[in-house]
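Weekly puzzle thread! Below is a chain. First person to post its structure in token form gets bragging rights.
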Amino acid sequence: MRFQVPQFIDVESKIIGPFTLKQFFYLAGGGGMVFLLKTFLPFFLFVILAIPVAALALALAFYKVNNHQPFIFFLQNVFRHITSKRLYLWKKVEPEKQKELEEAKKQQLTPQISVPKLTQSRLSDLAWSLDIKEKAK
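Winning reply:
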């Protein structure tokens, strides 16, 4: 038995003319706001306030950030970023403390390896013991 697999599941259906339901509501809401501004405000205030409202409605309906993310998600991310707490890791250190920190780091980075001092007699004793062990094998 064969089943038909749905395709284009990420594309919204055009419900009202050439617009999706979301686009229609964004445009209708923006148009309603512009209409209310026109009825209640003088012309110069209407123009000043209607342009941003209309631009926001058009951006919500049609603009995609980075060609794939709807503008409403972008606005949500901006709002969340502005209102959330931030963690700042950089802290200013006083110059005296900074020198102490650098010295402590240098001491930690340089290994404290004690190397025995080899004298000529000690070196010859080691060489002789190595020669004997090789011959014994």
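Puzzle host: Confirmed. Bonus trivia for everyone else. Residues 21-40 form the longest helix (20 residues).
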